[in-house]
Amino acid sequence: MTTPVLLDAERLRARVVPNGPYAALDVVTATGSTNSDLVSAAGRGAVDRTVLIAEEQFAGRGRLQRQWSSPRGAGLHMSILLRPNVPPAQIAWLPLIAGVALAETVTRTTGITAALKWPNDLLLGEPDEWRKGAGILAEAITDPSGTAIVLGMGVNVHQRREDLPARPDGLPATSLAAEGAEVDREEFTAALLLAFAELDELWRRDGGDVVGSGLLDRYRRLCGTLGRQVRVELGADEQLLGTAVDVDEQGRLVVRGADGTTTSVSAGDVVHLRPAGPPVP
């Protein structure tokens, strides 16, 4: 990896903060976890659409409290504090909406084919040879101002593929650079922030309705899990085998078993989602 070019906080703020869509943005050199920092900031009254970016994270958190780290300037480590006024049942859609914004931004700015592994892992490369390039984690908290969501995104930008750690679900890791893209992290960060703000505003304006807003259809088009044979590991030696046939209005994955019955699973119930065979014709 070449010497990293660090982000310019003032330039980023000038692009996304004055007159919206974001209320505040800060860039720190290093921290344990931007999600943890924004959870603390929310308790101190941080406002809706506050953004925190770290050049280096040494205790980043993924699903099921898995920890990871990344060298300075190698990736994009960003969290956004959100206080959306939508029905509570629709809050689970926020990380999926962020996945749509991320995949669409990658394809638009780099030309790389991007898809989503349900619920919101970024897949890069070609079908049947997908590699993970980013992850998203949303955490709900209750503070004096009500319910808030801290949405974290970790994107591999400049890392070499061989420098990325093995993943517990067996999906190979990659980065935008490893897929052949030359990326200006500052331009990419601004593009992603603006893309997410546009989708977030659309979602809020429609009261969290992912059907009426068209967000469910956009997610389905990007979801590389659909149409594939999968093994859903639910923990305690329990698993579900079948074909992923849909994502429903609650953001759940719908799996059809060999006997034709369908089961809907939510992200919070799943330990691992693994491919179990080729796409179903």
UniProtKB/TrEMBL annotation:
It comes from the Bacteria. Gene3D superfamilies: 2.30.30.100, Bira Bifunctional Protein, Domain 2 (3.30.930.10). Keywords: ATP-binding, Biotin, Ligase, Nucleotide-binding. Its EC number is 6.3.4.15. The keyword Transcription regulation does not apply. Residues 6-204 form the BPL/LPL catalytic domain. One of its GO terms (molecular function) is biotin--[biotin carboxyl-carrier protein] ligase activity. PROSITE patterns: BPL_LPL_CATALYTIC (PS51733). PANTHER family: BIOTIN PROTEIN LIGASE, BIOTIN--PROTEIN LIGASE. This is biotin--[biotin carboxyl-carrier protein] ligase. It comes from Saccharopolyspora rosea.
